[in-house]
Amino acid sequence: MFKFLKKSVLEADNHLYTPIAGQVRSITESSDAMFSQKMMGDGFVVFPTSEEIVSPVAAEITMIADTKHAIGLKMANDVEILIHLGIDTVNLQGKPFNLVVKVGDILKPGDKIGSMDLKQIDEAGLASEVMVVLTNSDDKISKLQLSDEKFAAGEKVGEMFL
């Protein structure tokens, strides 16, 4: 009767999905050393072919950067995820990003987060690659298994083992 009063329940799921259509690669192939050297954690990078951004996991949004270039998520298994949109795009002050979510939202894999204007990022001379980083992977993940190929947004790309 009062479904609008019910808070969404966070689903347990150890699968990873691509947040944007494109070529998926190991995080070590990112053009930014902060990511490629796994200083922030293990994960993967997507070289995008479209602009729609979706959730790569079932999680709660815990942080959105003021410049909209970074989104923090926390899964039911306590794995923390950072979606980082582009390299040095913080300098664009949020202009190429349109987000439709807020902190506290509960997402399922494939739920829309927003979009990024690839042309605007390219015209600024910046890389549009999207990183999905498991920021506490050293503490939580024993193995990360990924597929390196092209995917549509929201397709399963791998699995993490706790």
UniProtKB/TrEMBL annotation:
It is a multi-pass membrane protein. GO terms for molecular function: kinase activity. The keyword Transferase applies. NCBIfam families: PTBA. Pfam families: PTS_EIIA_1 (PF00358). This is PTS system sugar-specific transporter subunit EIIA. The keyword Kinase applies. It comes from Liquorilactobacillus uvarum DSM 19971. Keywords: Kinase, Phosphotransferase system, Sugar transport, Transferase, Transport. Its main location: membrane. GO terms for cellular component: cytoplasm; plasma membrane. One of its GO terms (biological process) is phosphoenolpyruvate-dependent sugar phosphotransferase system. PROSITE patterns: PTS_EIIA_TYPE_1.
